[in-house]
Design brief:
alpha+beta, Phosphatase 2c, domain 1
C-alpha cells in the first residue's frame, strides 16, 4: 500500500486539534495502519484527546506485523480508557474526547473502527462510497426520514456528535471488515472539516482528476479552504494495490 496524509488548521481555528497516522508496509515492521482523529473539548482538551488516542495506538502496535480487527478494536478501547482517565484526573481537560477512524489491512482483509463523525470512504473509478455511518444528531434525523441528505449537509446542528472516544468510561465503537475489493481504488479517511466544506460528488471528481495521491490530498484541502475552511481539515488517502492507475 501507498498512502499520503495532510492536515491543516483551516481558516478560522487558532490551532489544529486533528491528528493522523499513515503507516504503509513499505516502512518499518508495521503493516498498513491509517488513522484520523478529530479532537473536541475546548482549547486544551481537543488537541490533547486526539494526541493521546494517536500515541496510544502507535505505542500499542509497536513490533506488530499484523493488526487484525480484534486487536485494533482492543487498542481503541484502551485509547478510550487513556483519554477518559486523563480527563477525570485533570479538571481542565474534563469532557474532552475525539472522533477516531481506523483502517488496518492484513492479508487482503481491510478492518475498520469508527467513532464519531469523521468518515471512511471507498473510492472507485465510478463512485465514492461512505463506509462509516456518522454518530451524529443530524445523521439520526436523516436515518429517521426527518430531513433530506441536502438538508443534512447544511443543518445548523451538523457538528453535534452522539459518540466520541474518551467521553465515557466505556465505548461501543463500530467495527467491521471487508475483503479488499479491487474495484476500489482508494480508501480515504477524513475529518468533518473536509466533508462539511466539500460534497461527496466533488471529492470523487477531485480524486479522479488528480495525478497522484499527494495532489489529491492537497487539492482536497485547498478546495475546503477556498469554500470557507471553518474547521481543521485532515485527509489520509490510501492507494489500493491493483486498483489504481495513478502513481
Amino acid at each position: 500500500m501507498i498512502s499520503y496524509g495532510i492536515s491543516h488548521k483551516g481558516n478560522v481555528r487558532s490551532e489544529n486539534q486533528d491528528a493522523y497516522i499513515n503507516i504503509d508496509n513499505s516502512i518499518g515492521e508495521l503493516n498498513n495502519i491509517y488513522v484520523v482523529a478529530d479532537g473536541m473539548g475546548g482549547h486544551l482538551g481537543g488537541a490533547m484527546a486526539s494526541k493521546l488516542a494517536i500515541d496510544t495506538i502507535i505505542d500499542s502496535i509497536k513490533n506488530m506485523s499484523d493488526v487484525p480487527l480484534n486487536i485494533i478494536t482492543a487498542i481503541i478501547l484502551k485509547a478510550n480508557e487513556v483519554v477518559y482517565n486523563t480527563s477525570v484526573e485533570d479538571s481542565s481537560l474534563f469532557g474532552m474526547g475525539t472522533t477516531v477512524e481506523v483502517i488496518t489491512i492484513n492479508n487482503s482483509i481491510a478492518s475498520f473502527v469508527h467513532v464519531g463523525d469523521s468518515r471512511i470512504y471507498a473510492v472507485s473509478d465510478n463512485e465514492i462510497t461512505q463506509l462509516s455511518h456518522d454518530h451524529s444528531y443530524v445523521q439520526e434525523l436523516l436515518d429517521n426520514g426527518a430531513i433530506t441528505k441536502e438538508e443534512a449537509y447544511s443543518h445548523p446542528n451538523k457538528n453535534r456528535i452522539t459518540k466520541a472516544l474518551g467521553v465515557d468510561k466505556t465505548l461501543n465503537a463500530d467495527c467491521f471488515e471487508f475483503p479488499l475489493n479491487l474495484d476500489w481504488n482508494y480508501f480515504m479517511l477524513c475529518s468533518d472539516g473536509l466533508t462539511n466544506m466539500i460534497k461527496d460528488e466533488q471529492i470523487h471528481i477531485i480524486i479522479k482528476n488528480s495525478k497522484n495521491i499527494k495532489e489529491s490530498c492537497e487539492s482536497l484541502v485547498q478546495v475546503a479552504l477556498d469554500n470557507g475552511g471553518t474547521d481543521n481539515i485532515t485527509v489520509v488517502l490510501v492507494k489500493l494495490e491493483g486498483g489504481l492507475n495513478n502513481d
